[in-house]
Amino acid sequence: MTADSLARARAVADAVLYEGYLLYPYRSTTRKNMARWQFGVLGPPGAAAAGFGEESSLSAGFVLDPATDPVVTWTIRFLQLQQRQVLDGDGRPRAELSAGDRSWVSWDEAVPQEIVVGPVAAESLVRPLAVPAGVDTEEIAGAAGRAAGALRRTRQPLTGEFALTVARDGRFLRVTAEVRNVGPPATGTRDALARSLIGAHVLGQVTGGQFVSLLDPPAAAAPAVGRCASHRCFPVLAGPPGDRSLLLISPIILYDHPEIAAQSAGELFDSTEIDEILTLRVMTMTDEEKAQARATDPRAAEIIDRCDALSPEELRQLHGVLREPGLGADGDDEHREQIPPWSEWADRPRPVPEVPDGMDWWDPAADRAVRPDRDAVPVAGVLVRRGSRVRLRPSRRADAQDLFVDGAPARVVSVHQDVDGESHVGVVLDDDPAAELHEWFGRYLYFAPDELEPLDGPEK
């Protein structure tokens, strides 16, 4: 494991930590921002059953392949809620306070917490996780050097446990890691959230062994992997491709070897980081909305400042990135040899190919075997493909529009097949004045092959 590998893994872990922390447009008055902290929240015991909090634990089952005597360092990471209350000059609570050209609002902030367990042997253990309560006060300066008010930040104590259960499974070790909130019961929704472990996840670093992928295990480890179970989390390999020394137990779904896109200019703290959409949304905010957002949190202010400062070139690089599925770190396609050679079909229609033997349909590399712009589907003895002319005969009545297109001539633009093996043909209507625009946007009408009548003869 290299320092670069660990830095890469921690960058992803930081994104997980703040996932959903700020929901655009980042204002305290926005309804979405009134229901934050939706990922990896471990509430006090009984809070979920009482209906005002989340479950108190998450657990991950995974497999460790020990080379010698494996030693693991576990890093448990989460956010602690910090309630920021605005006080006026007389010490009275206020929802908002302005001084000069700045404003502050009462707001729930987040304090990142990180507790390290280890290095320890790969053995069963239980370790306490404790974060103390705290109260801090920050003065708000006003005119003539006098205090205009203050910000009082309050944190409740957090009490948790980290537990490992390790069992031998053939030559492998089958491990279950659990993070639990074991604090006293909460009295209500606000109290439950203040004493929750928010965005909880675990980063594991091993020496003297390696973690096994649960998504693509080697054949020897597959039975042990099949006996693993996880609850509210997803263990994935966290280092670069080829590195199996790092594991990330994430409360959101990830793939092995996740990474932050190089095109991302910075965090947006909002559910999977769709940077271009969120950046454009921030840029549409009014000056008043931006001022409200800046008043909530320094991280929100950073987002707005960064989005406002983006150059056209920087914004353009967020759009239209194409990635080759199945490519390793060196750019080689590990699955290329598994895909049938379709080159001889380049200028001829061919039925949608089957997923190659030995490959699962969900493997991204399987996409290389299909070409919706060239694939064909047999209809009444004719291979229908892109460019074929057909007449629509809707029979399933999928929606009311079917009544209006019955008998209409159309042109095929794509042929698809779903995971159940059913074919779907995308068409644009001949007499639609917006057909060219629909085709450019990819807004097709879809029909089953038996709802089409070919208007072209068989190809010779």
Architecture overview:
About 15% of the residues lie in helices and about 35% in strands. The chain has helices at about 5-15, 45-50, 190-195, 220-225, 275-285, 285-295, 300-310, 310-315, 400-405, 435-440, and strands at about 55-90, 95, 95-100, 100-105, 105-120, 125-130, 135-140, 145-155, 160-170, 170-180, 200-210, 235, 245-250, 350, 375-380, 380-385, 390, 410-415, 425-430, 445, 450-455. The strands form 4 sheets. Strands 1, 2, 5, 6, 7, 8, 9, 10, 11, 12 and 13 form an 11-stranded antiparallel β-sheet that branches. The chain has a 5-stranded antiparallel β-sheet with strand order 20-19-18-17-21, covered by helices on one side. The N and C termini lie far apart (about 60 Å). It is α+β, with helices and mostly antiparallel strands. The chain is built from 10 helices and 21 strands. Helix 6 packs antiparallel against helix 7 (about 300-310). The longest helix has 15 residues, at about 5-15.
Low-confidence stretches at least 5 residues in length (pLDDT < 50)? 324-348
The secondary-structure class comes to: alpha+beta
| Rg, alpha carbons | 28 Å
The helix content, as a percent range, equals: 10-25%
In short:
The protein has 460 residues and is of the alpha+beta class. The chain has 10 helices and 21 strands.
In terms of topology, how is this protein built?
Elements: H1 3-17, H2 47-50, E1 57-88, E2 93-94, E3 96-99, E4 102-105, E5 107-121, E6 125-131, E7 134-141, E8 147-155, E9 158-169, E10 172-181, H3 189-194, E11 198-212, H4 222-226, E12 234-237, E13 246-250, H5 275-283, H6 287-296, H7 298-309, H8 312-316, E14 350-351, E15 375-379, E16 382-384, E17 389-392, H9 402-405, E18 409-417, E19 423-429, H10 435-441, E20 445-447, E21 452-454
Parallel strand pairs: 14-15
Antiparallel strand pairs: 1-2, 1-5, 1-8, 1-10, 1-11, 3-4, 6-9, 7-8, 9-10, 11-13, 12-13, 15-16, 17-18, 17-21, 18-19, 19-20
Helix pairs in contact: 5-7, 6-7
